[in-house]
Amino acid sequence: MNEKEKKNVVKKINEEIEKTKNSIIRLRELTKPISPDCAIGRISRMDAINNKTINENALRKATTKLNALKIAMQNIDDTDFGTCKRCKNEIPLDRILLMPQSRFCVYCAGK
Known about the structure:
The chain has helices at 3-30, 42-74, 93-98, 106-109. By secondary structure, the protein is mainly alpha-helical. It has a domain at 3-78. The longest helix is centred in the middle third of the chain and has 33 residues, at 42-74. The protein is elongated, with a radius of gyration of 19 Å. The model has no long low-confidence stretch (mean pLDDT 90).
């Protein structure tokens, strides 16, 4: 990876970190407890509880992604950055730009 490509990756990681932080803030609001005294019908309440569960899962995934992005940023200067951790082949730049937190090539990620 040359310096220009590395700058693009760093820019993309920083953008993804900001976007993910904003998602986490929004999801934390959506996962607040549902008050039992809230004046909504039984079906609406069940729907709200279901939505809360879905948002809690999305919050967990966003938190995991944020941690992986921070690790990628810390490792950007490592000589093996952009190398698949399983097969040791180079990860294509397009994949790194699409998913900068990915540590595996497309083939190994599917295993």
